[in-house]
Amino acid sequence: MGNIAYLADGLAGLQIIDVSDPTRPTALGLLNTSGNALGIAISGNRAYVADGSSGLVIIDVSNPRSPTLLGTLDTPGTAQGVNLVGNLAVVADGSDGLRIIDISNASSPVSLGSLSTKYAYAVRVEGSIAYLADYTGSLKIIDFSNPVAPRLLAATSQSLGGVLLDVTHLRNFVFGADFFFVKK
To answer: DSSP string of 2-41?
Structure first.
């Protein structure tokens, strides 16, 4: 985001850092969220924080020195990661799986639908497809074109994916960060 870095900083919440001089990063602002900030997505002047047991937190970052809370949605699981597409936040919600949230009204986000998985750890979206790192459930590919009823398109077995902690998508490839398992 230009010369500003936004950090999901665990129990400290959201940290905003000036990185215009990479040899001397400078703290600009902080908003201590009520949970454990584990993941973040930025869109415009808003930060969407996956805040652990506190769910999704939406923060106005238009003034980086004084971020302000806009809204929250306490999810049933433990929000681990978040990705955005349009007016939707797609949240990896730990033991509650994947959750789709309408964020069109930042002060009052609404849960639309969910899909149960083993333990949703991280998520990346491309259009209406979510690529989910499902910890011991490995990789899940989910269609959320109907956000009220997301559906599983495909999954890999753990023997192919180990214990996934993160995932990303590039063109026709999906890459996962595996905790310890390497298949030869």
So the answer is: TTEEEEE-BTT-EEEEE-SSTTS-EEEEEE--SS-B-EEE
Give pTM, 2 decimals.
0.92
Tell me, what's the pLDDT at 176? Answer: 73
For the chain, give every domain's residue range. 4-178
Q: Is residue 43 exposed (0-12), middle (13-18) or buried (19+ Cβ within 10 Å)?
A: middle
CB crowding 144-165: b at 16 or more within 10 Å, else e: beebeebeeeebbebeebbbbe
Q: Is the pLDDT of residue 182 over 60?
A: no
In the CATH scheme, what architecture does the domain 4-178 have? 7 Propeller (2.130)
What is the band of 138 on the pLDDT scale with cuts at 50, 70, 90? Answer: confident
